[in-house]
Amino acid sequence: MSDNRPPFPPFTTETALLKVRAAEDAWNSRDPERVALGYTEDSQWRNRDVFLTGREQIVAFLREKWERELDYRLRKELWAHTDDRIAVRFEYEWHDAAGQWYRSYGNENWEFAPDGLMRRRYASINDLAITPRERRLTPGPDASSAG
To answer: Does the pLDDT at position 145 exceed 60?
Structure first.
């Protein structure tokens, strides 16, 4: 697979929206290897209180995340963009092994390399316990349970 990931910076509103949709689709696949291909080999992340560098660490982090955060479903929204940066707000829903559902809210700041791969991702996230009845995000076609 090519290490280029269009659309490329500089971003317009249209191309920034395409990047956001592509990221949402990849994360909703819950496939760590697929997600990691959108990032540079030496990508730097902050996810809550975890700091990562590189695809190998990203894959390991996502595997562990999706073992804990079951039936994960995400929605992202473009907040702002510049030539090589995009800011998004997001929410996702998931449940733990005991069946408690959560909605996680957050903001991400992304910076892209010229080849369209993300070289920096900084995420701030907060969790809210919810009941199954309070869920807003519908399960995807690959979801294993409706909760």
So the answer is: no
